[in-house]
Every structure is written in C-alpha cells, then in structure tokens.
Amino acid sequence: MSSSRGRAGAVHPLIRAGLALLAAGAATVAFAQPTASLEAPRAPVAAQAVTVVLAQSKVVKGPDGNEQFQDAATIKPGDVIEYKATYTNNTGKPVKGLVADLPIPEGLEYLPRSAKPGASLVKAATKTAVFEPEPLVRKLPGGKTEPVPYSEYRMLRWSLGQLPANGSLAVSARAKVETVAPPTAVPPTPATPPPRGK
Question: pTM for this structure?
Fold first, then answer.
C-alpha cells in the first residue's frame, strides 16, 4: 500500500469545502484542557495544546490489486476519497475529553463502516446534527423506522477520550463522490455601451 497522501493545497473545490468544514469542526479540539489542576498557575500559551493535520486522498486499486492513495486534486463521480485527521498533543500532559468531528460534504456518500477507529468510538449524524451509532434510522409515521441512506450522512464524531502527553491519534473515513460541483465561473463583465449621441 502506498503511503503518499493528498495535500491540502491544490484540491478540487468539493474536497476543499470538506476540509474547511473539517478545520472548523477540529477547532473545538483546541479547547481541550490538559489534566493539570485548576489551582495551578497558568503560563501564557505559545502554541495550541492540540493541533490537527488534515489530509485527503483518492483511493484506487493498483496494478497488483492492492489499495493505493493518490492526490485528490481531480475527482469524478464514483471516486472514493479518504479523509484523515491526525490530532497531536503538543504538551507534556494528557488532554482529556478529546472529540473529533469529520464533516461529509454534500455530493459525497459516506461508505458504511469505513470510519476508523470504529465500533463504539464513532457516531454519525445527518444535517440535523443528532449523533447516533451507525447505521442511522429515522422514525416514520405509525411508529415504524427506516434506515437513513448513507448519502444523507453529513458528520462523523469520535469520542476519543484521552490523548497522551506528546501523543498523536488519527481518525479517518471514506466517502464516494456522487456529484462534482463545477468550478465557480466568474460571469463576464458586460461591455460598456458607447455614449449616446445628442
């Protein structure tokens, strides 16, 4: 399996939008508090206690049939994208209560059970932001329920607990591209009409 990962620089607008949402969601992690006593004097903070590195890669099958990761600068419907967020504790003390959010942008369909770490650590939500274990279900009239289509999943949340001093943890999930938003075109500027005669 290749270890090359996509960069957050030159990426497709759909993926860039997802990373912007991911960065916004990850900002809550910066407020996680080290386990130091509340009575301890606090020194000025020079850097964030927890930082996040975001990456996205296109998942493809190599000639040998194994998965490989490619740059995700160009995508098309049917492509599979893996989002990965690596959280690093930059302090010498454990950080408790670490929660990681990973948005799934419109136009992408979450791939079932692709969240890692999975099992009891991850919950999913639709645009309602009500987090529940996967698979999501919705209530119908008459007390019945139906599964929520994976194309309606818009967020994953991991309750990671404690991040050890100077430690790192990564979360990831995969989504399939359903539609690709065309690049935003700048409308042409209309020509200025010549001044009218007398």
Answer: 0.68
